[in-house]
């Protein structure tokens, strides 16, 4: 009987607090694939979500080889194509419960920038690793104390597959028949107006 009561209480505790067991998530736009011309810079659109009761503070991002493990040394990917620069980790980004937002989506600004070398060609595949800390109190709160409110003893990480491709620097010319029609119509119209003026 005691075992049944204990099991029921334990099950009720797990059902009552599902958000406490959900991990923050990272989703990259366009399936994690970006491309650009040699000499240009590109970045990954992303969505960060945190439905836990804790506050996630982003500490950094990196573009690493798939064999890299979060918390260890990052083996950079695509060094023959260009270089990766962290954007998100340089800002104070908090994702969590109210008064913060539980989800952040950024398009065009990205979480990091990949700058292609002038002679870049080909592609590279790896992982975007976003590192973060979890706090029990909102870091914007006046009562926040990082030494007391930090939940994780080591840095945590979210991982998403990503790739970069250096697109051909020579764009294919696109014929524009509409421009020729417009130019021809203009010349025909000028000829008609000129003819009417000289008939008078």
Q: What descriptive keywords fit this protein?
A:
3-stranded antiparallel β-sheet; 200 residues; 5-stranded mixed β-sheet; elongated; single chain; Immunoglobulin-like
Query: How many distinct beta strands?
Result: 11
Order of helices and strands: HEEEEEEEEEEHEH
Sheet with the most strands: spatial strand order: 2-11-10-5-7
The CATH topology is: Immunoglobulin-like
Distance between the termini: 113 Å
Largest sheet descriptor: 5 strands, mixed
Percent helix? 10-25%
**CATH top-level class:** Mainly Beta
Radius of gyration: 27 Å
Arithmetic mean of pLDDT = 80
Q: Give start-end ranges of low-pLDDT stretches.
A: 3-21
Q: Which class do the helix and strand fractions yield?
A: alpha+beta
CATH architect. name? Sandwich
Q: What would you call the shape?
A: elongated
CATH superfamily: Immunoglobulins
Number of domains: 1
Helix tally equals 3
Strand content: 25-35%
Provide a descriptive summary of the structure in words.
It is built from 3 helices and 11 strands. With 200 residues, it is α+β, with helices and mostly antiparallel strands. The protein has one domain: Immunoglobulins (Immunoglobulin-like). Strands 2-11-10-5-7 form a 5-stranded mixed sheet, with no helix packed on it. Residues 3-21 have low confidence and may be disordered.
Gist?
The chain has 200 residues and is an alpha+beta fold. 21% of the residues lie in helices and 33% in strands.
Topology readout:
Layout: H1 2-16, E1 25-28, E2 33-36, E3 41-43, E4 46-49, E5 55-64, E6 82-86, E7 94-95, E8 103-106, E9 112-116, E10 122-135, H2 146-149, E11 156-166, H3 177-199
Parallel strand pairs: 2-11
Antiparallel strand pairs: 1-4, 3-9, 4-8, 5-7, 5-10, 6-9, 10-11
């Amino acid at each position: 009987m005691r075992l049944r009561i204990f099991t029921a209480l334990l099950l009720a505790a797990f059902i009552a607090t599902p958000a406490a067991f959900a991990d923050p998530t990272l989703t990259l736009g366009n399936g994690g694939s970006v491309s650009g011309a040699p000499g240009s810079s590109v970045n990954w659109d992303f969505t960060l979500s945190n439905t836990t009761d804790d506050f996630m503070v982003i500490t950094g991002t990196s573009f690493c080889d798939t064999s890299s493990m979060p918390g260890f040394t990052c083996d950079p990917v695509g060094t023959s194509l260009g270089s990766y620069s962290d954007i998100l980790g340089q800002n104070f980004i908090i994702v969590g419960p109210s008064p913060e937002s539980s989800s952040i989506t950024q398009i065009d600004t990205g979480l990091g920038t990949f700058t292609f070398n002038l002679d870049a060609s080909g592609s590279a595949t790896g992982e975007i690793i976003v590192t973060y800390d979890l706090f029990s109190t909102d870091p914007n709160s006046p009562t926040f104390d990082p030494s007391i409110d930090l939940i994780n003893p080591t840095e945590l990480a979210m991982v998403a597959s990503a790739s970069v491709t250096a697109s051909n620097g020579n764009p294919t010319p696109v014929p524009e028949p509409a421009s020729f029609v417009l130019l021809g119509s203009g010349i025909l119209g000028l000829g008609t107006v000129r003819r009417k003026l000289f008939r008078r």
